[in-house]
Amino acid sequence: MKKHEISVYLTKEMEPEYVISLVHEAIKFNSYILFQTKKLQLNAKSVLSMLGFSAFLEGHVVISAEGEDSLEAVKNLQDFLSPKCSKATSLA
């Protein structure tokens, strides 16, 4: 399986509508996608998971995807999150 990660720095809080749109973006891909902070690991395709913990998704966040379309998934989510980010760094 292919695995790709990107590190983003979220500077703005995400409104519930934005989080739901983010989940819809993640669902478009077959890869398993996670949002990771130092304390949390969230399934990007789970509305409940993402809405429940979106307040904790500020600062350094790693988006990782594992699967055949993992590179496309992380790039798409990076673009989607760009209005909420100050910077992004590709990890692998």
UniProtKB/TrEMBL annotation:
InterPro entries: HPr-like (IPR000032), HPr-like_sf (IPR035895). Pfam families: PTS-HPr. Residues 21-81 form the HPr domain. This is HPr domain-containing protein. It comes from Aeribacillus pallidus.
